Amino acid sequence: MLEPIVWEEDRLSLIDQRKLPNKLEYFICKDYRDVAYAIKEMVVRGAPAIGIAAAYGMALAEINNENIEEAYKTLKNTRPTAVNLFWALNRCLKAYKEGKSIVEEAKRIQREEEEVCKRIGEIGEKIVDDGDTILTHCNAGALATSKYGTALSVIRFAHYSGKRIRVIADETRPRLQGAKLTAFELNYEGIPVKVIVDSSAGFLMQRGEINKVIVGADRILRDGTTYNKIGTYSLAILAKYHNIPFYVAAPLSTFDLESSEEDVKIEERDEREVAYIENIRIVPEGVSCINYAFDKTPAELITGIITEKGIIKPKEEEIIKLFKGIKWKSQ
After folding, report:
1. I want to staple 157 with a disulfide (CB 3.0 to 4.6 A). Which of 121, 222, 263, 324 is the partner?
2. Could you name the active-site residues (predicted)?
3. 33 assigned ligand-binding residue
4. Reduced to 3 states, what is the DSSP secondary structure of residue 171?
């Protein structure tokens, strides 16, 4: 399996996702500023992967005897929507204040996240039937987490169990994470996958060619409201209309029990991501673009949330039960 995040005691190596699928290269981070750049410029992306990378950014600051508070602030300000970033940084800052090793805490975070993703796959594959065609959006695989993935972990473990499945991957404009990353991962492991343009998902549903939709998440509020890659909300509405189960796969570290919808900042990225493809301008000069990176899917559009502790309905009482006995501080 791919190793997107590799810690080598004094440096962090990240698969440079900007260069996939044509080149499989690692981006080397020697200090926390390199990690901040990697997160902001999407060398690494995906909520759990961002959290792990940020934790190792704090570890590099410790190793290099740099200002830990400054490293924390710099890394925290890289991207605003994915809650795993703040969760991991706060764990590392807490370890530092308690006189513990940040390096060991970062390693622990990565190990935990990998085991969690494995459990999500083992639990989630039970919702997949033999012969299913599954639609997924963006990339919620090993590249987005460190190992297995969330939505793709469900797909992987269904495949490992011998179920004959195939995957439809939305291209996911404007950065094409579905076409470039999800298709690369699944093809790498021999899991049947086809790529579609985002706008054809509804037509395939209308034709009866999609059995389930499984996506990841960047933040889930206590009432089940889910924030994920732009286009997720549209898929949820289409799935609801066509009576297709719509599942979100995410670890507990993606839940935010404290924020309200008004607190969540939706990242708006550079409009050039929309205006250009591979440095070729496709939008007329003088025409501006809107480029929100995430959208909000209401709980009533979600069939279930697949976590490492089980599959739940997106209801506040069920989400609160997940955290019973867990001390929780997201930001």
Report:
1. 121
2. 218
3. no
4. coil
Asked if the model's pLDDT at residue 9 lies above 90, the reply is no
Average of pLDDT values for 51-67? 97
Annotated catalytic residue, options 16, 170, 218, 256: 218
177 labeled part of a ligand binding site: yes
Question: How many C-beta atoms surround the C-beta of residue 5 within 10 A?
Answer: 25
Q: What is the pLDDT of residues 112-156, one digit of tens each?
A: 999 999 999 999 999 999 999 999 999 999 999 989 999 999 999
224 closest CA partner among 88, 151, 317: 317
Per-residue tokens: 185 = 């991962």
Residue 136, SS3 per DSSP: strand
CA atoms of 58 and 88, how far apart (whole Å) = 10
What is the rounded radius of gyration, in angstroms, for the C-alpha atoms of the chain? 19
Known active-site residue 34? no
At 73-86, the pLDDT tens digits run 999 999 887 788 99
166 is in an annotated binding site: no
Q: Is 229 annotated as a binding residue?
A: yes
Distance CA 142, CA 181 (A): 10
User: Alpha carbon 303 to chain centroid distance?
Assistant: 19
**Cα distance between residue 35 and residue 56, in whole Å:** 8
239 assigned to a ligand binding site: no
- The mean per-residue pLDDT over the stretch 161-173 comes to 97
pLDDT level of residue 47 (50, 70, 90 thresholds): confident
User: Sorting pLDDT into bands at 50, 70 and 90, what band is 251?
Assistant: very high
| Nearest-angstrom CA–CA distance, 247 and 138 | 14
